[in-house]
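Q:
Got a chain?
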Amino acid sequence: MIATLSRRERLLVVAALGVVGAVGGWAFALQPILEHTRATAELVPAREQALQQRRELVARRGAIAADLEATGRRLEAVSARLLTSATPAVAASELQKLAKDMAAEAKTEIRSERILEPKERGELLEVPIEIAVSGEIRQLVALLARLEAAPKLLTVQDLRVRVVNLAQPRDLLATLTLSGFILPAKAKT
């Protein structure tokens, strides 16, 4: 077919193919390369900043390791103050025993005990009990001081005090809601 064309027509066909090749090369080869180069050039500052942050992080590795170790020690110290059992029933039993021992040390009498429903407090599980204690005001104050200074982390959620006998207001009846904390089994894994 090209053989039947005149020299001028062949020259026009070659020129048209050259123009189509140049436009196609620009559109399909050179343009994507230029856009990729522009996009990469725009990413350079962000990548330099990320690299600088990583270098600073690597440079602070010793300080971060020391902070991590100190936090681990604090966590172990706080964990030692939690009740030892991972199940609420056994933890409530341990809490009852602690309360009975402290009440005996404070020379008060425990009149009743009741285990309340455990509540989730973030990653900890709060195990509350309600105890009714009778004694004189000094004995109740001594009991509260012992609870505050306990080796385990105990909180008094509620305290109600009333006089047992209005005719002789010596003995008081205090109802305490006492809580201890455990790490549930799912948090230990």
Summary: The mean pLDDT is 88.
